[in-house]
## 1
Amino acid sequence: MGEQRRSVAIHVPVLARVEGEGALDLRIDDGAITELRLRIFEPPRFFEKFLEGRHYTEIPDMVARICGICPVAYQVTAAQALETLFDVELSPWTRAMRRVFYCGEWIQSHSLHIHLLAAPDFFGCGNAIDLARIAPDEVRRGLRIQALGNELMDLFGARSVHPVGVRIGGFHAAPPLARVRELREKLRAALPDAEALVRWTAGIALPQDDQAFVSVATRHPQDYAIEHGDIAASDGLLISPSAFGDHFAERQAPFSTALFSSYHGQPYLVGPLARLNLSHDRLPPGIQALLAETGLALPSRNLFHSLVARAVEIRLALHDALRLLDDYRVPESPWVPVVPRAGVAIGCTEAPRGLLWQRYEMDSEGCVVSARIVPPTSQNQARIEEDLRLSLLEFGLDRPDDALRLHCEKVIRNYDPCISCATHFLRLNVERP
Amino acid sequence: MNVPGTPKPRVAVHKFSSCDGCQLAFLNLGEELLRLAERVDLVHFAEAGPLDPDTDADIAFVEGSMSTPEDLERIRRIREHSRMLVAIGACATAGGIQALRNDADAAGWAAAIYSHPEAIASLAHSTPIASHVKVDFELWGCPVSGRQILAVVNALLLGVGPRDNGDKVCTECKRNGYPCVMVSRGIACMGPVTRAGCGALCPGLGRDCYGCYGPVENANTDALAAQFALQGLDPQAVVRRFRSINSQAPVFLAAANKAGRRRDG
């Protein structure tokens, strides 16, 4: 802060409608951004440390607690890692049902984000309750879809927040046919809702933006990758999850409790738009046609299209859940026995917010020696800052503080950051002469 | 129901160190959420939108544990502004899973994960709300359910004190007709010492209860630890049973320490 420069510092509680606590420091000098950093002060919860010494059977119940909104992602990734290390041959039933279970979480999390967190921005509303006054049918439809996602999670996990059904080797129990039949009807009935949702999001007047960035997501030879796949980047990279560390690095910025990730030293994007950019050719033909109808050109360089990408992924998740439950049979056993062994376990899946990578070093008793968990939001953090910088320049730095703040919020919400786990305050600290 | 003309009760939802899962009990209410918003004024609920942390509230729901020096200051302000303070979930009632650090060298942990541990403003211990301010009602569970939350709201709207479920998980198994996993399958189940409220979800899937609703009153942890030993759990495994989601709940903490002494002695 120089003597001749008049600095204005404003503390505004800014970002509601995200999961987690963050602050944005913005400083503008002579019409230029001189400082912009997304500070995350989520109190550290030290999961990686207290997993040490725990038995492999406990891991799914423990890692679920990292995030109440996407516990399935943490559970399924951990199971995938350990089952690979232990050389477990999963039954086709388990493989299919893990995807159905995961589809439930995508439906729930995406619908919650679209309707309760993001959409109010584009209708001049402060929250979904206000939005429900001007768009009651759309909000109700969204809540119905969200509830259906919860029901799918509940089918395998007995509850949707911290479900209890996953075990290493399969599931603890298989849902009875009658319940699956009932849910199948609900899923089928929701298809028109999901199509209407895609059209609705595509019809919202979203801000225009055009930025260059690298998209990173898992990719699978046949499926739209959710619970399995290799890691792909839009610059052509295609690697096995075990090679993650050769290309991606984490560092802690001194002002943050989250770890920033980089890809070959650069920011990168994970999440729905990155997935759609990389794998839209893996969508079933009907959904590709729906997407074409909306006029959304892919790959997209406008992060605001994340809203549409989430709606498309809800439609896909409903489609896949129905397809996989179509000839549902109760298996002889929902799990196979597991024999632990020492070594390094690596798992990688697509959490609703993007790529989730986990690594466990296990001893021969099946206990954790060390753990490392790379969640989607820390991977997006550098990209969010880069996006804010570019977006604000495009938006115009001379706008009033309130307008700047609102625009920052909208940009940040595109990433649906799950700064998992602390108070939800983004304080905007603008300093300018 | 509200009498026309009388102000609606003011409800706030605050969050500290946690996974956000207990707030989802509100956000997953579906259409009930819209109906709730008609019956009460949601004056502060950051994740849902309304932001007014220092406003007066009739009922403040608080999720999360006390984990940083700033938290301690903030919970005092919330207490001052709230007529009734309800702690929801394992983090707010027992320090949560992150309280597993309380028995460890948290500074060493920060240094192992973060290259700038000095930037980590973290208290050595993660503690429940009631360790710092008066709490009017505690709702246990990891996570609490929408049913539990609505029951509290309804009780308070009707002007009666909310009720807590004092049974153990075993009673829910019996009510639901679930075969006992401990007796029939030899599974080391925490149900006999765990507070009811979930509906015995885990035994319902044929697996062990792992105590996420915390200890029930008059829990006989000695008998259960002895039973676990008979079932072949080594002392370390018995410690882990009690040292989990609710590790700092006094009853579970004492049971873990006792089993630990058996292991060391």
## 2
Amino acid sequence: MESEIPITMTYAGQLAGIVGASEETKPVPQGTALTSFLRDTANRHGGRFQELLFDENKQLRRALVISINGEHALDPEALSLTRPCEIFIMTPIAGG
Amino acid sequence: MRSAAVIALLIALISMGEACKVPVFRYALERWESDAYRAVILYRGADLKSSVEVLAAPLVNAPANLEVELINVADLTEEQKWQIDDVDVVGKIPQLRLHYPHGSNIEASLWEGPLDTTSVSRVIDSPIRTQLVDAILKGSSTTWILLQCGDASRDAAAETRLRALLDTVTANLTIPEGVVRADEVTAEGTTKDGQPLEMDDVLRTEIPLKIHFPIFTLSRETPAESIFIKMLEHFGGKPDEPLAIPVFGRGRALEGIPASALSKASISGACDYLCGECSCQVKDENPGLDLLLAVDWNAKLEGTSFIVERALPALSGFGVAEPSASQKASSSAESHSPLPKVLVLTLGGILAVTLLGTYLIARR
């Protein structure tokens, strides 16, 4: 059985408004791809949250700032979640 | 032979996606033009035209990222009237409607009110905007606006927390290695010891390059900032919670971080992005929204600009338009990289296509 690790998401402006909180923690199987985790999170929050993170082709938007434990993730699609961490996301203003 | 061609192709393609060493905040200041806001002035009757023009003159003449349009609604056709919200409410008092830049996709007007000297002055400038610009031109990496909620204890706590986090970040962040000052570049576009370099890694101004994050507090009750505060509404947050908004480059702001989300991870994450290598030089593929500022950035930066000339080999069969010196210094918008990079990419593309074709033919 895969072990699970806690992942804390910290949200800035728009995502915090959608979620209704600036932080939430969720356990995920160790080794989960970051993109997969973000897709699950977006599916859970739906609509506007999904639009802010993913484009019409279901690809992670380029104009996002994603950092893990305070370090900017230059290539988020190449990362996996192997340890408990804090993910911080800033989205484009109003989808622009 | 085949594998060599494939390897060469991969190298050519990989080299196209390389990040430049100049930090994002500095790249934005030197190379990204601000997006223009739109001020639409509506009045009714040709007899008002001259007085409206006088009132609107400061908007039209300001060195701001602002486009101004004057419309006499009495001249509009029915079809044209349908394109303007609430056009019938425009009476003898001219209306000023301020809109975010087109690229923001924010359709609603930012602010609406009567056109008068007060509204005009508050649209284009305000005390805190002057402070932000001064700090940026003195080399601050990013200025932080702390938009207060009005609860003195929460505001003070948020400021203390933000200051402490920024101090920690300042102590741990470094400027990326490989940034080149323009005075380190020879006329041939190499380093002093003759090594080739990438012009995207070269700073274009003498403004100090440093890690420095000043905070400017802003009360929501400041009359002179009323329109600027409206401008910040799309940066997130709730009125009952302090909001920290990072501003960098030519007044580009990222989403605000609410006080409840002020943490080492969030502040370090934002600062690490802003002070890190500019991995994507295309402005529209980076987050943020430009603020409306009455600053002629090109003129402000010109006094400190380096102009690096690079001697190019003669090209036969190509028409090369050489930009003027002023164009080079003005760091025109977006991903407009210096000519050598364009040249490298073009030649790289030609090489890649040629090698791919060779490889495919060889496979037959």
